[in-house]
Amino acid sequence: MASVHFDRVSKRYGDVTAVDGLDLFVEDGEFMVLLGPSGCGKSTALRMIAGLEEISDGELSIGGRVVNDVAPAKRDVAMVFQSYALYPHMTVAKNIESPLLSKPSRTESGEVRKLDKTERQARIDEAVRMVGLEEYLGRKPGELSGGQRQRVAVARAIVSRPEVYLLDEPLSNLDAKLRAQTRAEITELHQRLRTTIVYVTHDQVEAMTMADRVAIMADGRLQQVGTPREVYERPANAFVAGFIGTPPMNTAAGHVSGGSASVGRGHLDLPDPAGTGDVVVGIRPEHLRIDPNGTLRATVRHVEWLGYEALAMVDLIGSDTDDVAAPLPEDASPGRWIVRLDGGAPPPEPGIEVGLVVDPANVHLFDAASGWRLGAARPDGSGAPAPEPVDTAPAADPASPDPAGPGDPATGEPDPAVGEA
Hints:
Blueprint: E1 4-13, E2 16-26, E3 31-35, H1 42-50, E4 57-62, E5 65-66, E6 77-80, H2 92-102, E7 105-106, E8 112-113, H3 117-131, H4 146-159, E9 164-168, H5 176-193, E10 196-201, H6 204-210, E11 213-218, E12 221-226, H7 228-233, H8 238-243, E13 250-263, E14 266-283, E15 288-290, E16 296-305, E17 309-316, E18 336-342, E19 353-358, E20 364-367
Parallel strand pairs: 3-10, 3-11, 6-9, 9-10
Antiparallel strand pairs: 1-2, 1-4, 4-5, 7-8, 11-12, 13-14, 14-20, 15-19, 16-17, 16-19, 17-18
Helix pairs in contact: 2-3, 2-4, 3-4
């Protein structure tokens, strides 16, 4: 196992910057997910770890060794591609064995050498049991389903026992049922192997259900790194707030003055007195309630009933989707909110006006221009934007241990006092 450290790593293609000054530390044995929309730089970052892309600036280390100029075959990593990349003329068994024939592998004692036939077969048997392919060893890829081919690709990575596993959108070609099944299999596999995994996906459900920590990227830059719970409960900026969550966080333009924020034609109480300034207001769908006395006013568009819950789609009265200048996900619609309801409650009728209420402690405030959370540090180390009206999240208990482990939770950088083991 080994750590992976991006130290101000950039990748440029001519005038286009795909990855811009990435600072990220992946702990030894950690399951790190690089998450973001298409074109955000996450796959490019993964390919730089593998050595398939040259680094334009910065240093990349694996296990404390700088690998900028190290050939891919000598980095001791194994990569699983979205397209499976199996040999169509080989059986499942031969596909799984192929990396053991082409290069030396790490033995139980830590020695790196070519394995004999008995050792290779033991590796194959172990990997096949892990992914449940015992019945398919004599088949060729064309005779397998998409999920089975994906498991062959994972088994082929397992047999080489690398320091780091790299998985590039491995579930994107599977249907919903197989994705859920394979998510669980990969998570259980990591729990058994405890090998470092860097996993790339655009699917935040995969990230939230599988990762030890999530690194969210947009436009080639790191937006936030933290545990799934941290990025959900305390998003670093409006982009992360709108990207994480199903449904994502509701956003709208607002104006803070004193102890309240005006939003559309209504207002919200804030937990503490604040300054004055324009903001982006964020509220999770589960934190909103429909109440006739609610100080926020909205018009119900329609209701989606899902059995155990219902989702009411509403338009905030007096709020416009063009009012927010801060960076948001492409599919975000500020002012068009979702309210999560109990599936057993009578749903509101489309077209009626309703009131909305929220506990002030569940209101998130972001800078109106930059989108960064008020009062929070950014991944580049800079502070919160000015002015700073309020930070509504509860203060952390200084006596409580840091759930993110050693290092800076905003950047993923290791604590110098702890080192980079």
